Amino acid sequence: DERIILQAQITLYGNDERLLMARDITRLHRLEQMRRDFVANVSHELRTPLTVLTGYLETYADNADQLPPRLARGLSQMQGQTTRMQNLVNDLLLLSRLELEQSGDDHLPLDIGALLENVCRDADALSAGRQQVTVEIAEERTLLGSEQEVRSAVSNLAFNAVRYTPEGSHITLRWKRHEHGACVEVEDDGDGIDPEHVPRLTERFYRVDKGRSTTTGGTGLGLAIVKHVLLRHDARLEIDTRPGHGALFRCVFPATRLAAANEQGSRVRR
Ligand code: ADP
What we know:
Oligomer: single chain
Shape: globular
Bound molecules: adenosine-5'-diphosphate
């Protein structure tokens, strides 16, 4: 690839003068591409050995009653850690795909109501009765987007709400109209997040509480995935953190993703 990539900045002055500054970022761009390819390849290569390990561990776990207690405890630790590694590898792969590939299905009509109800059930299962998870859905239920990608974004937000709120909290998944179109909201009444962290929350591996996060089962990539899915859907993430009163994550989809979806939806039904 012999292309040269320039970054341009134009400054306008009152007296009709303009200043154009151009920077050659070809090298930077190539390095970034190499980083992405590398992460994608490494994650892919790690999958097979992890599958083999998981298989053997499962076989041993099936016969755990024949093992000395100390070994059985170690075995269960190993299973926990391989699951964690698998989640990490899967999230890394998903993130590289979101960065690298064009998705073919991000303009298909999807039933966002059914999707939210589904994620609500999964979040409820993860919560195992510790929190109360409910869903509120507006009339218009069709969105133009990739079902798989939107599902992973909403799941990440809902699972975070379960992981980071104390017992007895309420979590609401919502689909409603918004002045710019419509939005998905994931709201909880947990401890919220200190506003100082908000600008960095969607960075890879950024965590508010470094110590606690390793025990919550998250990979540190959840909100980075949410950000990239929304970018691909012309949508925006708003975070309202209200420390002490819970957190609200809002994904705002533009009206173009709804009107078009309704047209396509009715065409499909006819
Ligand atoms: P992970 O959850 O795997 O650590 P994420 O990118 O999904 O990574 O989230 C980043 C951080 O944001 C979390 O570590 C947590 O500190 C904070 N966070 C996310 N959602 C919530 C929430 N609903 N309430 C409080 N803190 C949250």
